[in-house]
């Protein structure tokens, strides 16, 4: 069968897969032929951003040809930085160009009030009644703005399947609150509610009472800052939310009453169950709830396709900035292992990932993060937790880095094959020590931890050790099986770990590797606040199969003769070496000599980086020169060892050596 004879749904899946690999490749596919262009346009133009100048935008829409009509494929219209559209009565002109529009995203619009008013006045237009979602985010400042939003969605109450509500204590129609009208949304299947303390919250709000008023709901999301007493509620006994597929809860507590309600009224198999508990200490939760009910609840979660169970780091506010947090010790974590094993299941084919964060309970925390987070879907398992660094040091007087088991204390007797040393594929250990040098883990101690990890975990494809503190040694050591592992945070999609929350496993990280850890970890990043040849050689000696090595250091520790040697000759498989020269920003010397020695070919290359006498501190990329001399002379100029330092790189047969400065390539030495 020829490609164009395949059903469109199949062709769409193929092109969507191409887009996940490389968006540029998908764009090139549009130039192959007209048939491919017509297939790809609906995929690439599903989301469109409304910004810039309105008259130019209207001109583009009006001049579309039949063959090059992109607006007819748009499903989502985002309004972003659209201040120029203010006062221009042209929304009716714009919207009629998007007959397939289903989602209108106004969450970042500067003109959202006008959009809402326009939709309210023209609720019978075909393009308006076809809308499925109107997203506004948290833009409401006062009751008048919230009322404008609710009037808009209320005008579409018979057709709109999605509704998001906040500011629940505001009066919207006839001196009544929004939830009083929830039953009038006859086509409602998706509901998102935020009852937040800082946004006109309703302290008497009951989430399960709202659920009972929408028995046909398929997706329900709730974020509530207030405790809810379920013992006073009397739910309908025979009520089952048979259409419910996805549930997201972010609530202060989750106890036996919540679990009983879910077991009695939720369908047997959900697609997604996401629970975040915000005001409960992790070590207390598993002790204060009935163990039989917990086991029944875990058995229920075992049938759910996508599960997330998370307990945020509990903080009792003392002042405006100081908080006390409850975090795990190895003893309190011990009670959770049976619970963790039951949630993640026993499928040995799942890709398993573990992230450990080392902190202090008295560290100032400005936002809640997950004290423990357990995630599982059909392809992978992710476990994150925070350990008390002081407690860990007290329990291991000989040093916590002697064994990886100090950080991942898996029980000796377990009946689970999903979280096992032979199946775990990635490990991340991040330390944020307090202002005390006795809590700092230096790089030299990490070398022993690396040895232990390589011995205990046989199938790793990613390993990350890091320490982030402003007053002592900082480092980031990453070892991966792909270049993107070390360049873009490894298998993790979210923000930088030490600044915000723990990693989230990427969608592409579930392909299990069958080779050993040493064979898998071929891409390496060594980023430290200070570096010398001893640290570098000790680390690289553990990974003989390195193909790509990148080094970034703030301070280069030179020897007495102003010479530093990076002996990488033992890395016979290394094909590319990248060295960031930013350490020159803090050096006072007049120049740096880089000498590259190729052991296989017995050849030498020289680089010299110098700066004019008038420049006191700053090196610039255009001051870089390549020389082919083999002695200490550069032309007629002799090297002054008092002001010029020498960096010697010994390698085997590297194809390319790249030198960076301010993230720009200033020198590239190809294999001679």
From TrEMBL:
It comes from the Eukaryota. Gene3D superfamilies: Ribonuclease Inhibitor. This is F-box domain-containing protein.
């Amino acid at each position: 069968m020829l490609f164009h004879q395949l059903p469109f749904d199949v062709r769409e899946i193929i092109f969507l897969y191409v887009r996940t690999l490389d968006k540029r490749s998908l764009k090139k596919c549009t130039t192959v032929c007209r048939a491919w262009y017509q297939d790809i346009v609906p995929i690439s133009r599903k989301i469109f951003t409304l910004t810039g100048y309105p008259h130019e935008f209207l001109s583009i829409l009006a001049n579309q040809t039949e063959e090059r009509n992109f607006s007819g494929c748009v499903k989502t219209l985002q309004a972003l930085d659209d201040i120029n559209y203010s006062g221009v009565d042209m929304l009716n002109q714009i919207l009629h160009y998007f007959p397939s529009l289903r989602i209108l995203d106004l969450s970042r619009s500067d003109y959202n009030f006008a959009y809402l008013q326009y939709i309210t006045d023209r609720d019978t237009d075909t393009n308006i009644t076809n809308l499925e979602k109107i997203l506004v985010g948290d833009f409401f400042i006062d009751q008048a703005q919230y009322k404008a939003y609710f009037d808009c969605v209320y005008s579409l109450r018979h057709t709109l399947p999605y509704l998001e509500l906040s500011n629940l204590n505001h009066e919207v129609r006839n001196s009544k609150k929004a939830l009083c009208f929830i039953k009038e949304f006859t086509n409602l299947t998706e509901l998102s509610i935020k009852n937040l303390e800082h946004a006109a919250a309703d302290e008497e709000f009951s989430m399960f009472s709202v659920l009972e008023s929408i028995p046909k709901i398929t997706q329900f999301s709730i974020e509530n800052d207030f405790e809810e007493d379920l013992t006073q509620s009397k739910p309908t006994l025979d009520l089952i939310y048979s259409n419910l597929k996805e549930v997201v809860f972010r609530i202060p507590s989750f106890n036996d009453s919540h679990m009983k309600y879910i077991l009695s009224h939720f369908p047997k198999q959900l697609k997604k169950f996401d629970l975040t508990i915000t005001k409960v200490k992790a070590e207390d939760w598993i002790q204060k709830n009935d163990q039989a009910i917990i086991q029944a609840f875990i058995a229920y979660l075992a049938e759910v396709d996508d599960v997330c169970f998370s307990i945020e780091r509990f903080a009792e506010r003392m002042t405006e900035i100081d908080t006390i947090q409850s975090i795990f010790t190895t003893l309190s974590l011990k009670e959770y292992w049976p619970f963790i094993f039951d949630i993640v299941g026993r499928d040995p084919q799942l890709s398993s990932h573990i992230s450990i964060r080392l902190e202090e309970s008295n560290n100032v925390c400005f936002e809640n993060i997950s004290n423990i987070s357990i995630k599982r879907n059909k392809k992978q398992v992710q476990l994150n937790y925070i350990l008390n660094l002081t407690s860990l040091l007290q329990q291991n007087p000989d040093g916590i880095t002697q064994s990886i088991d100090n950080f991942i204390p898996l029980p000796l007797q377990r009946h689970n094959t999903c979280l096992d040393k032979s199946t775990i594929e990635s490990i991340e250990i991040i330390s944020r020590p307090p202002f005390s040098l006795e809590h700092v883990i230096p790089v030299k101690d990490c070398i022993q931890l690396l040895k232990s990890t390589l011995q205990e975990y046989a199938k790793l494809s990613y390993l990350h050790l890091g320490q982030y503190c402003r007053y002592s040694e900082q480092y980031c050591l990453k070892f991966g099986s792909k270049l993107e592992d070390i360049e873009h945070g490894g298998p993790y999609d979210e923000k930088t770990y030490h600044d915000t929350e723990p990693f989230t496993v990427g969608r592409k990280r579930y392909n299990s590797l069958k080779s050993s850890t040493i064979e898998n970890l071929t891409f390496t990043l060594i980023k430290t606040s200070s570096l010398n040849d001893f640290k570098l050689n000790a680390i690289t000696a553990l990974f003989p199969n390195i193909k790509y090595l990148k080094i970034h250091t703030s301070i280069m520790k030179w020897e007495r003769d102003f010479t530093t040697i990076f002996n990488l000759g033992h890395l016979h498989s290394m094909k590319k070496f990248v060295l960031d020269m930013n350490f020159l920003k803090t050096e006072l010397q007049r120049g740096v000599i880089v000498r590259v020695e190729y052991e296989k070919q017995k050849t030498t290359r020289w680089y010299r980086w110098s700066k004019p006498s008038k420049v006191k501190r700053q090196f610039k990329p255009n001051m870089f020169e390549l020389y082919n001399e083999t002695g200490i002379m550069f032309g007629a100029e002799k090297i002054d060892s008092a002001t010029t330092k020498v960096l010697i790189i010994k390698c085997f047969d590297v194809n390319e050596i790249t030198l960076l400065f301010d993230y720009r390539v200033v020198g590239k030495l190809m294999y001679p």
